[in-house]
TrEMBL record:
Residue stretches making up the EAL domain: 490-744
PANTHER family documented for this protein: BIOFILM ARCHITECTURE MAINTENANCE PROTEIN MBAA (PTHR44757:SF2), DIGUANYLATE CYCLASE DGCP (PTHR44757)
A GO MF label: cyclic-guanylate-specific phosphodiesterase activity
InterPro entries noted in UniProt: Biofilm_reg_signaling, CHASE_dom, CHASE_sf, EAL_dom, EAL_sf, GGDEF_dom, Nucleotide_cyclase, Rev_trsase/Diguanyl_cyclase
Subcellular location(s) of the protein: Membrane
Signal peptide from the UniProt entry: none
Annotated organism of origin: Marinobacter segnicrescens
Coiled coil: 283-320
Name this protein carries in UniProt: cyclic-guanylate-specific phosphodiesterase
One GO-annotated biological process of the protein: signal transduction
Length: 753
């Protein structure tokens, strides 16, 4: 059970962390800010309470003074009601008395029953009001008529006075109903009213706004700009009108209630935090210096051990591949040469196996180098399990491995080893959460028959490996005499292939696809041919594998796309204008991210409808890197290009990708068509594929049709299209118009008119 560290040691480690002084400083800063915010909040609360008290006092005074003015007006109205014949001179004397008592009146008026102003006191400055109709708009008239009827007080609210400027009129009715004898009206100028009612200390320190229906009816600005952060609004209790007072203080007034203590507290706490952090930082530096001295001593003691370990690692790296952990090529070849020297003295045989992973390059390009490295590491682990005193496994590079078997007595020993090597690939490899079935192809060279030194043996094993690949992969081949001459020819062909595009030596041949419902050719498959200047017409089987190994398949594929688009443009306006062209695409071409953009550019350049081009992919291409291919094919399908699965039924047939991918056509592999009329199993499989495709809305093409019986079988089972030598071999573009016009269906199968 591990010993627990003392709490003091754990605490010391925490205190020594570089971030600790910053944490202390941040803590004091947060505390200082919190205290300042709290004190500021308390001050703001006190300021708002004081502002509210002043506002309420102002509103209370406004209510009281306004009420006194109203009482005075009602008293005059009552006297006129009792003495309707009151002489004008007596009324004016009475009005002057009130004007003297209440300095806020602009004027006092008598308004008759028809709402016309008859008397006004004083006359000076109010001449424009004499004879004016107080019901100057329908709303005012309606309000005054109601006040006459009910005998109730009426206040106009803030209006534009005939004397000029904003003001307020208070109407006190003289009697009610039919006995009404007009109004005694008190006219106030808002400036004078505000000047008389607002307290002197309010005047300079606050801006006051009178709100009527929540709109500013009148405002009295402060001496200095008001602060909008603080304001208080209170409603006034006035008859017949709903007013609110909104008061905003100036910065000078607010500053009277401010205290320096919030900032003093903040600066004090922050200073304590800085001093505490600096103290901790100084202690840490002293402690770290002591630790550095101790570490230096330890490092000096460990340096000798490290040098010994480095020397051991260098010796191991010289002989071992870092990725796979197997013997590298240099060390393997040195050990192979030593083994051959021993075998020469002991008169024994030695077998060298060159191994290449099938489809590795395509998987590596599609799924990424991280996938490839992980797969190589897992393969290496399985192969390394076979290593013993007689078998050594090495890594040559790329996707190639080397296996040397010593003390070979007869060929059965080598066959047994090959079986063990194939068994390493029987189970799938789990890479990045997905299962992948990987196979390997092997070439075998045996000493001394296939070479007397390590380099010759390795070269001949590599030649045998290439021949095994030509036979279909996932197999092995022993080196035999004559292979070397074929390898030389292959190398020459590979060299010429690099210059074939530049010399424009490629040509497309076209094989018609017959519509079995109409007996007409509706499309053709484009098949590339190489017009070699010395070897003549080279079939694809001889140079396409070379192109895939060298990586030139992408350039050739782009050439095929351009050539097909050019041909479609040439057919426009001719009898072949409705023909579509199907081209084959390799998995490596599909892995190119810019393939959809290249297709779109070709369609624009040559003015070709995308729907006239069909792309054929093998099932293997569909399965490899499904997620990437799904995105690529979805982009290609959106362009309008048709998609077809070639060689369906061999290798990786799966209903899953028929469901997930947008597939237009399915091409049944020729291996099923060849014996479809003789083998019951092939017939059953062909019918099943046709029915399955039709149920999924996919058209079916049968390739490799060479007999009339095969064609009749396909017609009877409702296959859509047929392609093969029975209709036509692939022909150059110049021969296609004549072939199409003469008809590709054999005469014996044509229906009589």
């Amino acid at each position: 059970m591990p010993l627990r560290r003392p709490i003091s040691v754990v605490l010391l480690r925490q205190l020594m962390k570089p971030v600790f002084p910053a944490i202390v400083l941040l803590t004091f800063l947060v505390m200082a800010a919190g205290l300042k915010i709290g004190l500021d909040t308390e001050e703001n609360t006190q300021i708002r309470q004081t502002l509210a008290q002043d506002t309420e006092a102002l509103a209370s005074r406004l209510e009281q003074d306004f009420l006194n003015h109203v009482i005075a007006l009602r008293r005059m109205a009552s006297r006129l009601e009792v003495q309707p014949d009151l002489p004008q001179a007596v009324w004016r004397e009475d009005a002057r008395q009130y004007l003297q008592d209440f300095q806020t009146f602009q004027a006092i008026e008598w308004i008759d029953r028809n709402l016309v102003i008859h008397w006004v006191e004083p006359m000076a400055g109010n001449e424009a009001a004499l004879g004016y109709n107080a019901g100057f708009n329908p709303e005012r008239r309606r309000e005054l008529k109601r006040a006459q009827k009910e005998g109730s007080l009426n206040i106009s609210g803030v209006i534009r006075l005939t004397q000029g400027g904003p003001g307020l009129v208070v109407y006190a009715p003289v009697g009610a109903g039919d006995a009404n004898n007009g109004f005694i009206a008190g006219v106030f100028r808002m400036e004078r009213l505000a000047d008389a009612l607002i307290l002197p200390r309010i005047r300079g320190n606050f801006s006051v706004e009178l709100l009527e229906d929540d709109q500013i009816a009148f405002s009295l600005p402060a001496t200095w700009p008001a602060q909008t952060e603080f304001s208080h609004t209170t409603a006034t209790n006035l008859p017949s009108v709903e007013w609110k007072l909104q008061v905003k203080p100036t910065a000078e007034w607010i500053q009277r209630y401010r205290s320096p203590w919030p900032w003093v507290t903040f600066i004090s706490m922050f200073t304590l935090g800085v001093l505490g952090s600096l103290t901790i930082l100084l202690v840490q530096q002293i402690f770290k210096r002591n630790q550095a001295l101790l570490r230096t001593r330890q490092e000096l003691e460990e340096e000798i051990d490290q040098r010994v370990a480095i020397q051991q690692d260098l010796a191991r790296l010289e002989s071992t591949d870092t990725l796979t952990g197997l013997a590298n090529r240099r060390f393997f070849m040195e050990d192979l040469q030593h083994t051959l020297s021993q075998a020469d003295r002991q008169l024994r045989q030695v077998a060298l196996v060159m191994m290449d992973l099938d489809r590795f390059q395509m998987l590596n390009d599609s799924l990424g180098h991280h996938f490839g490295d992980e797969l190589l590491a897992q393969v290496s682990a399985r192969l390394d399990a076979l290593s013993n005193e007689r078998v050594m496994v090495g890594y040559s590079g790329g996707d190639e491995f080397m296996v040397c078997q010593q003390h070979v007595d007869d060929i059965d020993d080598v066959i047994h080893l090959l079986g063990l090597l194939k068994g390493c690939f029987s189970e799938p490899f789990e890479v990045h959460g997905q299962s992948h079935h990987v196979t390997a192809t092997m070439g075998v060279a045996v000493y001394p028959q296939s070479g007397l030194d390590a380099d010759t043996l390795l070269r001949n094993a590599d030649i045998a490996l290439y021949r095994a690949k030509e036979q279909g992969r996932n197999t092995y081949q022993f080196y035999t005499e004559g292979m070397q001459e074929r390898e030389v020819r292959r190398l020459e062909l590979d060299k010429d292939l690099s210059e074939a595009l530049a010399r424009n030596e490629f040509e497309l041949y076209y094989q018609p696809q017959l519509d079995l419902a109409t007996s007409e050719a509706i499309s053709v498959e484009a098949l590339i041919r190489w017009n070699h200047p010395k070897r003549g017409l080279v079939p694809p089987i001889d140079f396409i594998p070379l192109a895939e190994e060298s990586g030139r398949i992408t350039e050739i594929g782009r050439w095929v796309i351009r050539a097909a688009c050019q041909q479609l443009r040439k057919w426009q306006g001719t009898s072949l204008a409705k023909l579509g062209i199907a081209i084959n695409l390799s998995g490596r071409e599909l892995a190119e991210a810019d393939l959809p953009d290249f297709l779109a550019a070709c369609f624009r350049e040559y003015g070709v409808e995308p729907g006239r081009l069909e792309i054929e992919l093998t099932e293997e291409s569909f399965i490899a890197n499904i997620e990437h291919n799904h995105k690529q094919l979805r982009r290609i399908s959106k362009l309008g290009v048709k998609l077809a699965i070639d060689d369906f039924g061999v290798g990786y047939s799966s209903l899953g990708y028929l469901r997930d991918f947008t597939v237009d056509q399915l091409k049944i592999d020729r291996s099923f068509i060849t014996d479809v009329t003789r083998r019951h199993d092939d017939a059953v499989i062909t019918r099943a594929v046709i029915n399955l495709a039709h149920n999924l809305g996919i058209r079916v093409v049968a390739e490799g049709v060479e007999t009339e019986d095969q064609l009749r079988f396909l017609r009877q089972n409702h296959c859509d299209l047929a392609q093969g030598y029975l209709m036509s071999r692939p022909v150059p573009a110049r021969e296609l118009p004549r072939l199409i016009e003469s008809g590709v269906l054999p005469v014996s199968l044509q229906e009589p008119h």
